[in-house]
Amino acid sequence: MRRAAIRGVLVGMSNAVVLSGLRRAYGSGQNAVTALDGVSLAFRAGTFTAVMGPSGSGKSTLLQCAAGLDRPDAGSVVLDGGNPVELTGLPERRLTALRRERIGFVFQSVNLLPALTAEQNVALPLRLAGRRVTRAELREALAEVGLEGRGGHRPGELSGGQRQRVAIARALVTRPDVLFADEPTGALDTESGAMVLRLMRGLADGGQTIIMVTHDPVAASYADRVVFIADGRAAGEDHAPTPERVAAALASLRPKVLA
Ligand SMILES: Nc1ncnc2c1ncn2[C@@H]1O[C@H](COP(=O)(O)OP(=O)(O)OP(=O)(O)O)[C@@H](O)[C@H]1O
User: Fold this and answer.
1) Which UniProt keywords apply (predicted)?
2) Going by CA atoms, what residue is nearest to atom 7 of ligand 1?
3) Of the chain's two ends, which shows fewer C-beta atoms within 10 Å, N or C?
């Protein structure tokens, strides 16, 4: 009973991702940089979390480790989704398969293949996983991100915000446990960025777990929770973020030299 209760806290049904004691250093000797210095965080299923912190605080490293794109030196990453699996220590082939099936990732640079249509770009992860995919599924995936009727357009014929929405549709087409986003609105104008953020908010309201790194307090205010990282460590949380509160918390974390 007690063990079940403890397990419930660590990797229970309600958590989509649990990070425990994550450490990651780059380089060695005098050049060694500690990017993550023992971070433990849990992300509840169906919630939208923003990760914020000063430049170089370890946000991208955290996201890359949590998404199985980088390996921590110590600590564990557990993906739950009803079928818990620990990423750390998985052989590369299993990790690749797991990333393909259970993890979605969107970046600041959208990385769509320019020669392919929106529909063909969205189909790619399923094709790589050897799955059949129908036109109807692809149309539905694009409709979910507000791009019905745009399936035949190539990236060059779409706006920046529309391209990012295609990338989100591509990341979600495998129905991943978690959508990781690293500065998804960093390259967009305010209006396109707001559309992408509203889309992500709606996806989370529909049950999608989202973890997003951002520098922008307005972007962070769309999330349910903001976690702050400073010097590779967890440095507080806000469960009712507004742009003003987030900006104030961030200012208090900035290295004195930049303040
Ligand atoms: N591949 C790498 N090799 C060496 N050092 C690295 C590497 N990646 C990150 N670092 C260092 O690790 C620390 C954390 O980097 P990370 O990119 O995670 O920070 P961040 O908070 O995402 O920064 P930013 O907000 O500027 O993007 C930094 O000091 C960075 O210089």
Assistant:
1) ATP-binding, Nucleotide-binding, Transport
2) 26
3) N
